[in-house]
Amino acid sequence: MTGNWFHIAKAEFQIQTSGIKSHRKPIVLGFFGLGIVWALVIAPYLMALILTETLGIPQPVLVVVMPGLMRAGIMFIWLILLILPLSNALQEVKIGQWEILLSNNVQTREILVGSFVGRLSVYGLYILYLAPLLVAPFAQALEVSPVGQALMYVTVFVITVGAIWLSQLLVTAIQSKLGESPRGKDLANALAIALSFVAILPLVGLQLFAPLMSKILGMDFFLMFPFTWGADLVTQMAVAFNGIGLAIGSLDAALGFHWSSNALLLGGFSVALVVLGLLSADRLFTIRIGARTESVTTTHDENVALRGIRRVVRGSFGVLVVTGLKDFGRKAQNLSRLALLMLLALVVPIFIYIRAGELDLTSVNVMISLMLGFLGAQVFGGAGFLESKDQLWTIQATPHGVRRYMKAKIAQSTLLIVPVVLLPAILYAVLLNLEPSQVLFLVSTSFMSCVGGALVGMGIAANNPTYEDTKSRAYTMNNFRAMGLVAVSFIWHFIADMVLSMLGFGAVMNYIWESQILSILAQVIPLPIVGLVVVLIGCNQLSNRE
Amino acid sequence: MDAENFSIITNGLAKSFGSVKAVNGLNLSVPVGTRFGLLGPNGAGKTTTVRMLSGLMKPTRGSASVCGYDIVSQKSDVKAISGLLPETPGLYSKLSATEFLEFIGALNRLHGEILYERIDALLSILGLEGRQNDLLESYSSGMKQKVLIAATLLHEPRVVFLDEPTSRLDPSASALVKELILALAEETNTTFFICTHMTSFAQDICDVIGILNEGELVTVGPPDAVVEAANAHSLEDAYLKIVGGKVDREALLAWR
User: Fold this and answer.
1) Partners of residue A397 in chain B, C-beta under 8 Å
2) Nearest-CA distance A459 → chain B (Å)
3) Whole-model pTM?
């Protein structure tokens, strides 16, 4: 390598810290300085205070739960460091940048190393602030010596740096392969959405299935993963250098491997990763596909559903609805988002059941409606709403184009929502042994919520279109607003209850709460109303000229 | 001046973005069936002018009409009788050429046999008949531009605004578009308002040229008259004399 990696690392660092570009160096150095103070002084003191003083957890309990918690914590950090950069990087497949770099005689391994080093400076900060939260409580409880603490931090550092390297290697491999394909950007976006959900699953799992998770984490199966070797090694370091007289002998049998085996496995895995990355990098990227030779997707005859829609919705409006449906259905990211959110709509009430031990129609109905409201806002608003500003110009350049486009979007969303709401309804109809009338009620309320969420999502996207830019602040704000509006629509009854009580009409709300149907409707109906208002405002705003 | 004979009339048309005057006091009269070429450097205000005239952007000052319709109060009528080819393609990557044109036709309230006949005819003229069912994401930039040209002409507009129509086309496709513009202007009396950087393209097909610089129309007239008035030997030479940008060879190599 000729040092090109350094220039790439510098550029990557500048990209990562672009938000603070005027004071980049002092701010990053300041954060590192503060991080060291945090790791060595503040975190140990704070964690000891919280665990033993505030929460009153006895020291022996901390010692007992340490191996399990360390495994869970390290696994969580490892997955986050592996998946989040991957998910972020997949949102932009920059094949043009690759071509520029490669045409300047840069090797793929230099891109890999440069991007890794550039990112390490920023992700290193995360490690610096997160690792002490995990290490400090046990170092305090076991009164680990400074040498032992240093070894614990070194182990965490090796695990996390390994995860970042692996993530970078996967990003490079996936980007180079997806970049070749005309569908690359679309597939990458779909993958990014899927991965971000994978990243939060352990957290959800830890929350909802804590006993089950700890059981699984204790199984030998997890001894196959590098985060387990690292977590066990941290535990073994803490015990080996403890100041309270614990013997390390029995620990190895409980954890599975001797500390030297864990050290060897972790070290070997890290070295193998580095070697694998450096050796394979230059084989990953080859420019070979041109406009004439790449694979082309050709459309075929319309399916029965689309032909049916054309028959029912005749004229130019029907054409708008059908082309909109085709465009939506062919984007992998839309389908990915739809599938994942639907999965959540199906499993969240079951999670709640496992946690709370009850599954009645009211809670299931409200929970599904809320999830489907979120689903509507996420899937039909956001990035899938409009691809580019130029597309908007094209629509605006036609008479009443925006209004007709919005109406067609609402129609197509409504059509797509029908099968979406049927699935959870059927599942719970079977699980709860519901009457046909109850199923109909469940389907109707779910449908209203999902359409309401879709109206909110589309209205907000129309009010402030962010096109396909999923990294902008505006996109984040839009998402935040949409999710916030859906959530607030479902809890408005608290406010109504309070206001009516203050006005002396408390009996009205009491009457509503006494009826199962009315209480569900009271929580579900506001969302479509809010959605209608938001979509009208958005449509008006989108029609406005600059 | 009989307004009926003019497709576009502007009176002191201006657009500002904050303190930047993108277009400043534009006075133009473009007769029906004219092929008007608006030349100017990057950032001169050509795209802003087209966006105002096609009803997409509200002027800060002044007024304008397209085929007698006021661009502010009758913007829907303006959109119905005009077609716009934007500078950068805003295509739907997941639709095929036929489906995209179907979508644009539907936005212009076209449907049924007449729409599909026009789509087939336009795609055939533009040499895309073999690829009409392929998704647009696999099209080259030239092919995308052809689809956009078809989308602009699909509803048979009386006035066509073209923003850099040939910038992404190869010479043969460019020649085809030139012929299409000439044929439509001569046979159907369609007015073309073309923004371009390409002086040779403008000289070949435009019967009136306007040069816009820093938001102001600095010269207007037939290409030959513009060349003569600037005491130049070609339109490019005249353009460089008017706008500035004569190349100094020594300065070009000064960086070495």
Assistant:
1) 54-56, 79, 82-84, 86
2) 20
3) 0.74
DSSP state of A383: G
The residues that bridge with B11 in the sheet, in sequence order, are B63
What is the spatial distance between Cα B45 and Cα A438, in angstroms, rounded to a whole number?
Answer: 62
Tokens standing for B203?
Answer: 């000289």
Give the C-alpha separation, B29 to B2, whole Å: 11
End-to-end CA distance of chain A: 51
**Residues in B touching A392 (Cβ below 8 Å):** 90
- Alpha-carbon radius of gyration of chain A: 27
Contact A392 B90 (CB under 8 A): yes
Question: Which residues of chain A does B73 touch, with a Cβ-Cβ cutoff of 8 Å?
Answer: none
Token duo for residue A502: 């203050």
Q: Is A153 exposed, middle or buried (0-12, 13-18, 19+ CB in 10 A)?
A: buried
Grouping H, G, I as helix, E, B as strand and the rest as coil, residue A203 is helix
Q: Which amino acid is at B150?
A: A
Tell whether ipTM is more than 0.95. Answer: no
- Identify the CA nearest to A411 among candidates A317, A337, A483: A317
Is A198 in contact with A205 (CB distance < 8 Å)? no
Q: Where do we find the tokens 């003191």? A: A45
Is residue A340 within 8 A of residue A197, CB to CB? The reply is yes
pLDDT for A437-495, tens place per residue?
A: 888 998 999 999 999 999 999 999 999 888 877 767 788 888 889 999 999 998 887 78
Span A232-240, average pLDDT: 86
A420, A341 in Cβ contact below 8 A?
no
* Angle at CA of residue A242, ends A140 and A158, nearest 5°: 80
Q: Whole-angstrom Cα distance, residue B98 to residue B147?
A: 9
List the Cα angle A239/A244/A250 in 5-degree steps.
Answer: 40
Residue whose C-alpha is closest to residue A332's, from A191, A190, A192: A190
pLDDT above 70 coverage of chain B, percent: 98
Token digits for A473? Answer: 């602040």
β partners of residue B213: B216
DSSP letter at A20? Answer: G
DSSP letters for B194-250? EEES-HHHHHHH-SEEEEEETTEEEEEE-HHHHHHHTT-SSHHHHHHHHH-----HH
Tell me the C-alpha distance between B63 and B47, whole Å: 17
CB A231 within 8 A of CB A155: no
Contact A182/B105, CB-based, under 8 Å? no
More confident residue, B8 or A201: B8
CB-nearest to B106 from A319, A327, A545 is: A319
Q: Encode pLDDT of A59-118 as tens digits.
A: 777 777 777 778 878 888 887 777 777 766 666 656 667 667 776 777 778 888 888 888
Residues 396-435 of A with CB under 8 A from B: 396-401, 404-405
Which positions ≥6 away from A18 have C-beta within 8 Å?
Answer: none
Q: How many residues in chain B? A: 256
Task: Please tell me the distance from the alpha carbon of residue A188 to that of residue B231, in angstroms, as a whole number.
Answer: 56
- Residue tagged 């109850």 (tokens): A438
Q: Which two tokens stand for residue A374?
A: 């979120």
Q: Which residues contact A261 (CB under 8 A, 6 or more apart)?
A: none
d(CA B106, CA A248): 76
Of chain B, the end-to-end C-alpha distance in Å amounts to 57
Dist. CA A320–CA A326, nearest whole Å: 10
Residue with the larger pLDDT of the pair A197 and A225: A225
Beta strand ranges found along chain B (DSSP E): 6-17, 20-31, 35-39, 61-66, 69-70, 82-85, 159-163, 191-196, 208-213, 216-221
* Separation between Cα atoms, residue A231 and residue A134, nearest integer Å: 10
Residues of A in contact with B91 (CB under 8 A): 391
Q: Does B193 touch chain A (CB under 8 A)?
A: no
